[in-house]
Design a protein that fits this description.
single chain; two-stranded antiparallel ribbon; 4 strands; 3 domains; 26 helices
């Protein structure tokens, strides 16, 4: 019998792309479900339960402070606030300078850029009226001063047409970044809220770390959900990364960034597999499939009876999908090698007690953002400084790795020079670098500015729907969109309208003047391998034809000579963000993973479409 379907379970990257408003809506829904469950247990209404649930921590926190304590607290708060604003402006300016000089931001740097931009507009909403018009006005000047700001364009473009394309592309990227910033900005409380949720979180961790008092199972499960895979992976130490990679029989040699990338892909694969297994049912798996599934999740599999394998796999699915406990925490609990008689909840408790302080502070910020409570500026400052430290460490690792590569190349060259015996050596196979993936991304993107603009418009529509859903769920009208987010969103809408007008003019000119073949000219969503190679080869400083051929063959999983444009864009988008060296087998695994996620997404959409169709016929 198939396992019950978990509620609101999304694929890994869909969870990663959630806006702060969507997270607030989900938190509100979960709170309502909790109140209903407690009301059912206590045989009363949810309205009668809510004061019991929320007032207790608030009462403890409401100890009256003296005037001096209040003055001192406010002074420290504003001092940390100014320090935070100064540091964020400094970081945002540095990262913006990198972008304008054509440098590629790492995943961590891009997240830091989004966070600082969102926080600057949150702290000083008036800046929206100054910065955005100034940026739009200075755009033509910036393109002339910083010619490397965009990837190299097609060689056969005229200078005038190339300049138009560049300006349009930068405007689209600016609109996309600003919309991402809007989604990164948290909701705010309409009235000053007591810090009850933060107090609960702090009390919970005090219980865990002092070990003087046992927290409830309900609290352990509730607070475990805050440590999402993305922030947990980004804050793991090297020892923890190696332990989990070893548990999953993945390579443990490489930079921290490479180990995190491996785990990120593995967690995406596990999420997609879990959703497929849940849909088909654990009982449908053979014993060999059960062993493989359990082994992939760090569980004992060899020499274990089939009934036990099914039991532990069901338990994993229940925690991961039904309770929505992040897979990274579940794997960390297994990497501790605790005795088997320890319950899963106690394993989670032990795992939480060993999390680094920065990760706990990240979770504290998250819980404040979704509940509309104020985040302590000192906590934000500490997290920002730690993130800057980790960015510096990643850059140092990459530089060290580049130096090691150069030494190996020089050593091989020296051996060839010393060896006087005639020997025919095979031609060296060129590594596929991040720059190569960026070239492919550029060749695809330059042909689809319209698609990029439509995606931004869709994001705006989705965001407005999320705000309406928040207003519906928030019956007491506690939360609202922040002032900075509201003003920035209006500016994005104006930018979209301007880009739309400009794009129509450029599209008309291209239709009248351009003679070059267009990518996916028939609009069926598929391109041939030769079409993709030709598009990439038209770029300045394009990868070699042999390298383009290898990349195209890797992407063509079914070897039919055609590529699905949407699938190619997803793979290229993912790999162009990661500065890691991957083997052809690893790239093929990533293509397989994205195909599996696409299959899960389509399977999830079918019941929804059937339900909508049934409702319309009634």
């Amino acid at each position: 019998m198939p396992h019950k379907t978990a509620k609101n379970v999304k694929l890994w990257q869909d969870e990663e792309e959630k806006s702060k408003v969507e997270e607030a809506v989900e938190a509100m829904k979960k709170k309502k479900e909790l109140l209903k469950e407690k009301a059912f247990q206590m045989e009363c209404s949810p309205e009668e339960v809510e004061p019991i649930v929320t007032v207790a921590p608030a009462a403890a926190a409401a100890a009256k402070k003296t005037i001096w304590q209040r003055v001192k607290h406010e002074a420290v708060h504003y001092y940390n606030g100014f320090k935070l604003l100064y540091l964020e402006i400094k970081i945002a300016a540095r990262l913006l300078w990198q972008v304008m000089n054509g440098k590629i931001l790492s995943r961590r740097e891009r997240r830091q850029f989004l966070r600082t931009a969102a926080d600057i507009f949150r702290l000083v909403p008036f800046l929206v009226f100054l910065l955005i018009p100034f940026m739009e006005f200075m755009l033509p000047v910036a393109i002339k001063l910083f010619p490397n700001m965009l990837p190299s364009t097609f060689e056969d473009k005229s200078k005038k047409e190339e300049n138009k394309k560049k300006q349009l592309k930068v405007k689209i990227q600016m609109a996309k970044f600003l919309q991402d910033t809007v989604e990164e900005m948290a909701v705010t409380a309409k009235q000053k809220k007591t810090q009850e949720v933060v107090s609960e979180f702090a009390n919970f961790f005090e219980k865990i770390r002092t070990k003087g008092e046992q927290p409830s199972n309900e609290d352990i499960l509730r607070f475990s959900k805050l440590f999402e895979d993305q922030i947990t992976l980004d804050n793991m130490s090297r020892a923890q990364l190696k332990a989990i990679n070893r548990l999953l029989t993945l390579p443990t040699i490489g930079t921290n960034n490479y180990l995190r990338f491996q785990l990120r892909m593995k967690l995406r694969q596990l999420r997609a597999d879990d959703l497929l297994i849940q849909r088909e049912g654990v009982d449908s798996l053979t014993e060999q499939e059960l062993q493989s599934a359990c082994q992939a999740r760090g569980m004992r599999a060899i020499g274990v009876p089939a009934a036990r394998l099914r039991s532990q796999l069901r338990q994993w699915l229940e925690l991961h999908l039904d309770e929505q406990i992040p897979a990274s925490l579940l794997l960390m609990s297994r990497a501790l090698y605790l005795p088997e008689n320890v319950s899963k909840v106690d394993q989670l408790k032990e795992t939480l007690s060993q999390l680094p302080e920065t990760l706990v502070e990240e979770a504290e910020i998250k819980i404040c953002e979704v509940s509309g409570e104020k985040v302590d500026n000192k906590v934000r400052l500490d997290v920002l400084k730690k993130e800057e430290q980790m960015i510096a460490e990643e850059k140092e690792e990459l530089l060290h790795e580049e130096e090691e590569k150069k030494k190996k190349i020089e050593a091989v060259a020296a051996e060839i020079l010393e060896d006087k015996a005639p020997e025919i050596k095979p031609t060296a196979v060129e590594d596929i670098s991040q720059e190569d993936w960026l070239s492919i991304k550029a060749s695809l993107a330059l042909a689809s500015e319209r698609d990029e603009l439509e995606k931004i418009k869709e994001d705006r529509v989705e965001y407005q729907e999320e705000l309406r859903e928040l207003a519906t769920e928030d019956e007491k009208h506690i939360l609202e969109e922040s002032l900075g987010s509201l003003r920035l969103g209006k500016k994005v809408d104006v930018m979209i309208n301007k880009i739309e007008e400009r794009l129509k003019l450029i599209e008309a000119e291209i239709d009248d003047q351009s003679t070059e073949p267009r990518l996916d000219a028939d609009g069926d969503g598929k391109i041939s391998l030769q079409e993709m190679i030709s598009a990439v080869r038209r770029l300045k400083n394009a990868p070699s034809e042999a390298k383009c051929q290898r990349i195209a063959e890797m992407l063509d999983q079914d070897h039919d000579g055609t590529l699905d444009l949407d699938d190619v864009e997803m793979v290229v988008e993912l790999l162009s963000m990661e500065d890691v060296d991957l083997t052809p087998e690893q790239i093929r695994d990533i293509v397989d993973l994205l195909a599996k996620e696409s299959k899960v997404r389509k399977a999830n959409e079918q019941p929804m479409n059937a339900k909508e169709g049934g409702e319309s016929t009634q």
